[in-house]
Structures are given as C-alpha cells and as structure tokens.
Amino acid sequence: MKNLFRSLCFAVFFVLPRTAGARQDVPLLGGQVIIEPGQSDEEIEGWFRILNNNGMKVCRIRMFEEYMHDTESGTWDFSLFDKAFAAAEKYGIRIFATLFPLDKHNAASLGGFKLPADEVHLARIANYISHTVGHFSKFGSLYGWVLINEPGTGGWIPESALSDKLYEQWRDTLPESSYGTNYRRLVNFDRQKFVTVYNTWYLRWLAARVRECDPHSEVHVNNHQLFENVAEYDFPAWRKFLTSLGTSAHPSWHFNYFQRSRYAVALAANCEIIRSGAGDLPFLITEMQGGNNTYSGDKAFCPTGDEITQWLWTGLGTGAQGIIFWSLNPRSVGEEAGEWALIDFQGNNTCRLDAVRNVAACLERNSRFFKNAGVIGSPVTILYNRESLWVETKAQGVNKNDPNYEGRNQGGVMKSVVAFYELFAENGVKSNIGEINEYDWSRPDYSGECIVFANQVAIPSYRWDDIRGFVERGGKLLVEGLTGFYDEKMQSLHNTGFPLADVFGGELREVDCRTGDEVGNVPDDMPVHLWTGYIDVHTATPFYGTGRCVSAVRNIYGRGSVVWIPSLVGLGAIRTQNKAPLANFLRKELAEEMAKSAFSFKEHYPGVIMQTLASDGAYVTVIINKGANEQRIRLNVPDDALRPEVIFPDGVNGVKKTEVVIGPEMTMVIKWD
Predict the structure, then answer these.
(1) Side by side, which strands form the sheet with 631-636?
(2) pLDDT score recorded for residue 184
(3) Are the C-beta atoms of residues 341 and 290 closer than 8 Å to each other?
(4) What pTM was computed for the model?
(5) Who contacts 520 (Cβ-Cβ below 8 Å, separation ≥6)?
(6) Which end of the chain is less congested by CB atoms within 10 angstroms, N or C?
C-alpha cells in the first residue's frame, strides 16, 4: 500500500478476448434479474424462463455481499445466487455479474458506493472479490464481471487518508508547466482532474483483483448520468483493463437536460459518446429503463411500448452489441421497490416486454446480417472537452434556474453538443461525438472531414496546435457559441492574445448577452439564445454583418477552412423549435462532407432521425419519427440498384424506391441489398 497510485497506474492487463470492435454474434438483449432473499426456487427459475421465452439471452445480476456474507462470523453462503446461475445455465442465459461489496458501514443501497472509504475498506473489498469471483467463475453461465455499478460521483471525493494520499502521489507525477506563469489568478482545476484519475485508479485496482481470480471472463463497467458526469470518465485509459464499455441510460434519471420527446435523440447521443470512448472495444447499454418509476427517478414516468422499441433500435443502430433492461422483475424492498420492471406483478408480459420480444425476433430472423453488422462511419465529428465542463461548473452563479439563461447554466455545453447532433440527425446524417482527446489528430490529410465545436467555452492549450494542423491539412472547422472564450485555466483568451486568431481569421470583439431567444443578428434568421458574438476580422471573409457587427465569417487556412458563428444558434434552434434555418445551413455548408454519408435525407425532417448499419454489401437503416404527424421521407441512397425491404415492424410496407412513409412515434427498419 506504500504507493498505490504508482503501482496501479503503470500496470498493464493484456486481456483481449475477441477481435476488437467486431461482432461475434447477433446483439444480445436481456434484463436485470433481481435476486433477493425470500424468493422461491420456482420464482428464480421463472425469471430465466421468461428471458428465454422472449428472446433475451443475457442478464445482469447484482452480487450483493449482504446476501452472501455474514460479517460477524466471517462465513459465506452462496446458495441463493448459485440457484440463479444454475437456472441461467439451464436456459442458456449469459450473466454479467456486478460486484457489489458492502460499504464502509456494512450498509447496502441499490446504487452502491462509488469509491473506497479508506484502506481498511479497500482490504474488505479485496476479500469480497476473492470469495465472490473465485466461487462464481466456475459457472458456465458466467459471461463477465461488471467492476462497479455506475462509477461517477458528480465531482465529489470521499474525504479520507486514502484519497489524500492518492492525491498527493498523483500531484507528484505532474510536470511543471510554463504556460500561464505570467498570470497570478489562473483557476486551478487539479481537484476536478483528480476525480477522473481516482475513478480510473479504482477501476484499474478492481480489474486487477478480478484477474487474480478469473483470468478469462469479460471485464466491463457502465457509466451513468453521462451528460453530467462525462468529465469524470477517462475512457481511453479504461480500455487498457476492460474488454467492453457500457452505459446506463434511464431517461428518468439520466436525461434531465431533455424533454421526453427528445429521449431517442438523447439516447443516440449518449451511445455515440460511449462508442467513441470504447474505441476498438465493444460497447453495451448495460442498463436501459424498462418500466415504471413511481417515487424514484427525477422524472417519474412509464415508457410506452413504442418508446421501448425506439430505444432498442436506436441503441442497435448506433452499434451497441448488447442492451440489458433495468429490470426484468421488480425489487421487493428498499429503494425502487415495486418499480422499473418489464413484467407485471403477476409475472406476465407487459407491452414493454412484448416490444423487446418483437425486436429480438427480428434480430433472429435477420441474424446473418446483424451478426456482422457495423456502424457506418461519418465525416462529421462533434467534439466536447472536460475543460469546458469544469469551467462551466466553476462559473455558476446567479440565474441558475432561470430558463432565459439556459446557455450559461450548467449543462449548456453538452446541450449544445446534442443540439447539433440532433440537427444533423434530422438531415439523415449520423455524426460522431467524442472527447477532444479521443480524436485522432495525427493523420496527414483531413480533406472531407469536419469537426464541430459547439459552445466549447474552453479550448485547452495542449490542443491548439492540433486544431491548427487539422485545418491546415484540409479539414473544415465549424465553430459555434462561446467556443474558445477561455483556456483550460479559465483565462480569457480574446483580450490576452487569441492563440487561434490565424486559424479562425480574427478574434472576438465582444459578446452581447440578451436574455431568452431572438432572431436577426446571424445568417438566415437563425434563432439565437442568450449570446451573440461579434468578430474583429483579420483574414476572414464576413458572410453576415459589417463593421463592428460582423457575426459570421469564413476563413481559409492552409488547405482547410473555418466557419465561425460565435452565437448560441444550436440552443436557439432547439429552444424555439425553429430548427429549419440552422439545419438547412448545415446541409448546404457541409454538402461535400455530408455527401460521404451512405444514406441521408434530401431535406430537413424535424423530429425524424436515422441510423445506418452495413454488413457484406447490404445496409440497414433505422428511421424513427418523433414528430406529431406522418412524414414522407425522401432519401439519398448510395446505389440506385439497392432494393428496400421493411424488416420491422412486421407487415408494414412503407417504402417505395427511395421514399419512406412513416407515422408518428413509429420506428421503421429497412434492409437494403
């Protein structure tokens, strides 16, 4: 325990159970099976029979230490969970077993603790892993271990000698930086950075303990509250000890930034962030809301069968190789008791479970395609960065709950990212979403590629030259909102010498804050929320405004170009639901890049999104209509010889050549070959 941080930081675990990123089977659908004392043998077997009868081949079980370990006597009794593992084996169900040790005070909760309390607690966790993993790794039904349920604390670090020790050890590894030494009041975000480091350290430590007992099974983890907690997650570092990456996606808990009509878009954006974070590893939706929440959740509601269908196909269309619902059966006592289930209290299917069964049947009928299907790549990438999220949080003051100031409240950064993702999606174009450090900045040529910086209020200095090189080597940069207002130390850049003035073609003159939303100060009458920025033009060419009121420019730099609109047009479009001006601008401005998409829409269709998979020369498009009316969609297709066939839902024939008719709340899956 002398230097825990150093010993784990430099450990490497060579765990490569499959070809990275490749499908080995049809995507797995499943549900969380709640195992708790008092359940009969018949009940436990019944959960797995229900999974099997509905085409669900994977489950997740939380391995509660309190149900196995008598801490007073030190004895272990695994019989309750043995029955579940045996039943899973009988019905051919694979189990993701979630490690669930007791917290420092021997208390248990449904969510679980996120970080160890102290070194004594760490030793108790290691003892739990040794007994639990050592015992259940012998079962053939075991598929993998989930290291912890939903890491991420919302920025909080447990105050203890252990966290203090690790913090000091980490600080000792930091290099001295000469940047910014002339400024005395630079903001220090070391504690925020350490939350990310500490989460990674603990996950790596857990993986090492698991591997001591089980060298072969999958090792997995699922994040949560992604749009709020994403700055805590260093996904590239996690790839070194995980075999797959997961996410929890409960709209009632995790999509607080979005209205219910936008949950499908929010889920798609969530999945794109995880897909980028996973890199070459597979990714799963480890928890998807399956049922009603009454007293739990921030937004209590019950998903409809149509919504379950939309979420399933959204996840599959973005490349998820498994989707597990929380939960199959309800918990009986404690938090969330009687909530969230896919089945009713009598153990019968609900319309939600029927929806899962129908999607599972479609996957099985078309298994040849889905076994090898992969996500179509995109030339458009929307990048976010941790520093912008830290700055945004640090800057919170007045107006926190005033909707007229939404752009400056916490969440404005990620809401802007999702706004642009939605507008591209409504043009039928898939865009990537990733953290700035997940992007490949090393390529010699970026011709035909576009990076979007949507209101990334801080651009870190360590990426300035990479951004310059991206444009210089042929890339297009689309910059919106207050992107680059600060650096990573919250230094204002436009009155201290804007470092990217040569790339952007100028620098900010000022930002005009006007509460709410308005039209008239940017191109094409795009609605603007809160902030309109004006540019001091150097080398750029204005395309809206003159003199001191230039609000949009284009700049040629090297072989590439920059389009800069320093106003909140993304949030303006979403808030006013006047999305057409910005959506049409994007389609025209990025016509060359968007033409690379295998499938797209010929025009903007509000409320409609599309995902595309490819396999062996064939394609599948997933089209979801969240609009209030039937829509007639005209598609651009990669080859006029492709023949469309509706494979979901059964009995629907809504496609004629390249025209699709889709009703409200409907999901249509079309195979093209």
Answers:
(1) 600-601, 631-636, 659-662, 655-656
(2) 55
(3) yes
(4) 0.96
(5) none
(6) N
